[in-house]
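Render this sequence as a predicted structure.
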Amino acid sequence: MYLVNGKEYNCSVAIVQDIFNDKWKLGIIWHLLAGEKRYKELFEEVKEITQKTLTVKLRELEEKQLIAREVFPEIPPKVVYSLTPIGERLRPLLKEMYDWGIDYVQACGEFSTEEGCALTCKDENLGKNE
């Protein structure tokens, strides 16, 4: 048995399912792998998300301690989001998911003219395992 944030789980996979129970959180983390970002940058990079949903998902990821939110005391206020050490541990997993997704498209689909997240994926930081 596992106890996390007052909730009991029978399996560690159930913890992962509970944290990533929607289509947005992994994408947000994916974009933060390239480094810290401001809200507006994330909103522009995470395609088709509403501002309200992004705000909710950022709060949820912060509550789960996967991302950190830093507020700088300036006018206008500056807020920066980054991965925590446990969030950074998702780097090799997301890289593998990205590679698997490419393999899946090659086997079962086709590439369109859009690059999707390919530019982010080429970031040299994505290959590092810390």
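Summary. Strands lie at 2-4, 7-9, 37-38, 67-72, 78-83. The domain at 23-127 is CATH 1.10.10.10 (Arc Repressor Mutant, subunit A).
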